[in-house]
Amino acid sequence: MLQVETDAEGWPESDRWTELADRAVRAAIAHSPDARFLTDPMTVEVSVKFTSDDEVHQLNRDYRQKDKPTNVLSFPMVQEDLLEGLDNSDDGEVLLGDIVLAHGVCVREAAEKGVTVEAHATHLVVHGTFHLLGFDHMTDQDAEEMEAAERDALASLGIEDPYAVDDD
After folding, report:
1. CATH for the 2-156 domain, from 3.30.750.24, 3.40.390.30, 3.30.930.10, 3.40.50.2000
2. Residue 93 in 3-state DSSP?
3. pTM of this structure
């Protein structure tokens, strides 16, 4: 069973982001090797926070030593090599990790890409969830695998390929 906790303080119409986060996290997990997290008897929790550029800037500086805001940060709580054997915890709950999105960066990037803020935020939550599941994009091969998984998850939500190159 999956539980998604959402905080959308500072984002307009904060109620709609809860459903978006839930759908995006579920889609990513469903299109991962860890799809069992959606049906296993344990409770797997993901926390998604929609916040300001300033807060993400501070987190990026403090945890990644990058003194600028970024679109999304992920903070895994379970080591990648432990995900496969994960089937329970002392209380039947596992915190998979936290995802944090920056409002201004998300809005600007959506405009640059010509997509809705909702579609871009969904992509960022999917991307962040895959990071919590041990995916990364440090090598070209890893990036290709992660992008393919993201495409599949987003397509299941009716969102077009965010990596498609427009040759016009």
Report:
1. 3.40.390.30
2. strand
3. 0.91
